[in-house]
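Q: Hi! First time asking for a complex rather than a single chain. Here are the components, and I think there are two in total. Is that enough to go on?
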Amino acid sequence: MRKVLIVDDSVSMRQMVSFTLRSGGFEVIEAGHGQEALDKLKSVAVDLVVTDLNMPVMDGITLIQHLRQQPAMKSKPILMLTTEGLAAKKEQGKAAGATGWIIKPFDPEKLLATIARVLP
Amino acid sequence: MKIDLTQFRETFLLESAEHIAAIESGLLELRSRPGDAELLNAIFRSAHSIKGGAGSFGLENLAHFTHKLESLLDRMRAMEIGVSEEIIALLLESTDVLRALLDSDADSAMLETARRLALRITAYSGIESAEPADEPAVAEEEHEAAGGSDGLSLYRIEFRPDRELFSSGTNPIVLLRNLAALGDVSVTHLNAEELPPLSELDPEQCYLSWTLEVASSRGEEDLHAVFEFVEHLAEVSIRRLDADPAESAASAPPHRTGAAAPDQGVRSPARAAAHPRQDRESRTARSSSGGESSSIRVATEKVDRLIDLVGELVIAHVMTAQMVEGFTPDCLPKLRESVAAMERNTRELHERVMGIRMLPVGTLFQRYARTVYDIAQATGKQIELELSGEETEIDKSMLELLGDPLTHLVRNAADHGIETPEQRVAAGKPAQGAISLRAFHRSGRVVIEVADDGAGIDPRRVRAKAIERGLIPATAQMDDDQLRMLIFEPGFSTRDEVSDLSGRGVGMDVVRQNVQQLNGTVTLSSEIGRGSTVLIELPLTLAILEGLLVRVADRTLVLPLLTVVETVSPRSGQIQRVAEQGEVVVIREETIPLLRLRRFLRLASAADDGALRSLVVVVEAGRKKIGLVIDELLGQQQVVVKSLERHLRKVDGLMGATILGDGCVAPIVDVACLAGMNLFGLEAMARGESVTPISQNSPGSGERGETTHAMV
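A: Yes, that's all I need. Here is the structure of the assembled complex.
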């Protein structure tokens, strides 16, 4: 089963994304912020990361930058999950190495469709 | 497949309530640390999270309002707008509105308030910000129409990725696959000219580019959407081959989108495709679950440990069962061992399950900063609230029941305790008053202290008022502490004389009542001119306690061990009868009222209990000691408290019952209740005074048999 790491400081958002992904047949790992995500990825490999941008401790952009430095994560798809429809945020994410983005609030089917678009 | 996310609404509501509380306490902290960027960031993040979730559950008013709020907070954290008292007040008002909007049934008056406040917020932030995601709905419809039924179209796509394509986690094969899902794709040209010799090839670079032809019934925007995520990493041109060349060139010129403005002009249809069509659907997906479901959030580690423990318990059980099955006497040591293992497991499991219900009191303390702020604003006082021991954990249900009593105590301290700055300065004190809320553990109990450095409580005024209210006779002799405790008596304070800030029709008697419900005690100390301190002592949890098992007549009773001070076997002469009203035991020159449990619980006729072989267990609650006369000490044991009220009516003197190892039911003695009901009876008797009960409906001395007795 393919594994997805979902990183968001909001428990309800994490639950919703997790539920959606599990419904879509993925195995899900959760982290509450960027640092926790990095810690979890030390012991487990994932096929995709879905990350929020605004988070305490370590934000999503910094997380993406870190992940792109790691051999295991260098070319894995990373989607940013964000409420910002703002160009600046998206640009920052792209520059950091995000594969794509999902806008909150998200539609579950659309989320799965977007993930299908970036997963090999 | 329709995935229903409304089930997470409850979590969102809980979480948002926490966020609002965090915003509120953050704002109050901001007053003393206006330049704290991390604090501003945290406040912003909380607002941002609420906005994010609100849209998902169709709470549009909330999403809209939070959006405005977020814009202002964003400018504040960018230090473009400074922190001022007006802004703090405005934002605090906003937290009230947020709370109201969380309730999807917010009435029209509330919505009007929210609308006005939003206008004021916008005036401050100076940003007429666009609504989040409000244009895609239209755009999407357009493109649905465009992609309609006009048969197959042939497109030519030039796809020239940058070398760095892979660094974004993008796989070009996946893009081609996605494109293939929209129609028939044929690669007309694969350009590998840039491919270097193998020795120079960097596998992390993309050297290839493609020319494709796609026959699809979809519109051009759908094809563009496939490349949406790579527009900054590739040149993509899409041309319709079978259309009017002029038109198609105008609608989709080959272009390169740099970092400058990807979301503008001609790109907007493609961008729209990235927006969920959520908006409309979520409006209909509104959950109807408004009920008060009580839930706890538990750290995953805690749950994992529980699962481990249950696993160990199951193994220990299987082992024990096997040993019992093929039992021979020489198995006994092993059997003992595995029973001991089960016992350890059970105990740890028990503790950890209880631990799940424990929450830090900080979550409760937080809200009082606002209470104090509001009163200070309304009365012109200067008050600082100091919190400490917020991490102290307490049972969740107790935390909920503590909310109201603490609110009342804090309001009282701010409204009645702390003086005006002028009065304070005149009294030689700093103009700013202080209220402290502390929580800590003391001998297995949780203590919560509400202290102020205000005017203190004058026992003479309390006395005068108590006499006026008929709570005590004019001749009553009581010391200052006893007099002050009278403020907790029902009927002491009345609605007409408390201010509308601290009043709300609830007296201090309710504080004591609530705390006693939690098997806790309230004590008060005060010094005129120096302030007052209220101590609330509570058990860690309601569900389990360490008990002292005692025998009274032929019954086993449980005394909460924490209340037990000592056990004495009185010599003759140590027990004295006082003025025909009661008995006392004198221990080291201290006179302690006695209560004969045999008689109190009607377990035997009065004639039986004169025997001197009886033991006296001295118990204490709320600084009051009483001696309980029992027949025998049976031992110490952890007991699980079961409520009696489900089966019997409320019994004075008993807080519940437990089931012992042999299956017998043993009542648990409510020491706080016994000590309380003897407040004016037994103590006065101890001094040989005659005292009338304070009111008709309050329990009199247990010896008179007026109260409900247990049927044990």
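A: The first strand of chain A starts at residue 3 and ends at 7. Let me know if you'd like any chain examined more closely.
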